[in-house]
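hi! just following up on the protien thing from before. the input was this:
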Amino acid sequence: MKRNLGIHAAAAMLAMIVSCSRGTREQSTSEIPPAPAPPTGATTAGGYEVSAVTDGGSIIGTIALSGPLAKLPVRKIGKDPQVCGAGDRESEKLIVNRAGALKNAVVIVEGVKRGKAMPQAAQIAEIDQKKCEYSPHVQVMAANSEVTLRNSDPILHNIQFFQGSNSLFNIAQPVQGQVNKQKLDKIGAIYVECAVHGWMQGNVVVVDNPYYALTDDNGKFSITDLPPGKYQVKIWHEYVGELTREVTVIAKTETTLNIDLKDLLARKAAPAATVASVAPAAAVTAGSNAKPDEVVVQMHELSGREGPTFRFEPANLTIKVGTTVKWINVSGEDGPRHTSTDDQEWETPQTPAILPVGAEKWRTPFLRNGESATHTFTVPGKYQYFCETHGPYGMVGTITVSP
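and the predicted 3d structure came back as:
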């Protein structure tokens, strides 16, 4: 099935150069006021019941990250300088003040089925693309509500939402002032990325109850009016990771939860050697494989004067029947997610899939930095494959399989 790119007629020419929209139709651009909070006693679509809380307690505290911290690489700004500007920008993935307080950690009380109403702010989530940044960088929204996607820049942005390894949708916004709306119904963290400007990244955390908080510049948070009881409280951070703590809430009492995520960060650093051990692209040939009958292809994001470019390296292979190709994402800690696919369902006019008669098509998951996937070739002939997101920007490869 071919995909509907979902771009209105006025932008049809621009839409031909953008990546797939996975059949997601463009939402209405009309401004729809948020629905009022459910009345007391009402049950929301997710099964949460709104009721008066007369004896609620609170959870307050600080999320910290102590010890020496390596500075994350700056983001290279190399495209559309008339709008995006020039030079480098600091990473937004890890913001810690001098006292060790961690900003943008999300604190969520899990499994609450009854209590106060969802705040209006969580029901009117919006991402504004302005001066080639996502604003806000991290936010929390209610499940079964819509997020508004706004392009305030006079250039093309392409906004894609990932939940785990799945792409939820991918929308091109070539027109300044363009607004799209998308409903999100599954709770959890969502990673947001622009395929045109690779440094544009953000996060949306979807929750099914109103008992959450986002830490401020001083790492502080407060969750109020929580019915007394014993709860599992999850702390999530886009870079450091997540952990869960059990907390007992007492009626009309503040319970303090101060957590230092230094051990979580230390565990995160352990797998870094796996990525570093991948052979340089120039050394990856059919005759220098780490394993018999396996060839490695690296998935790159490269910086240049005209902005980021995306490549498979080597882009062209000649292998024998029975060889396994292993794709690994080496785009770096702040790099984008990539796929490898020869499935015609996901092709675009810029990325036609070429598959020999009788050959098995493939489609890898969206791979994050350091992740890999494989496919074994059993039918001779020529294959042309691509990255679902970055294929229209040059990320296309060919494989010739000989008997």
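Residues 1-35, 271-290 have pLDDT under 50 and may be disordered.
The longest strand covers residues 229-237.
cheers
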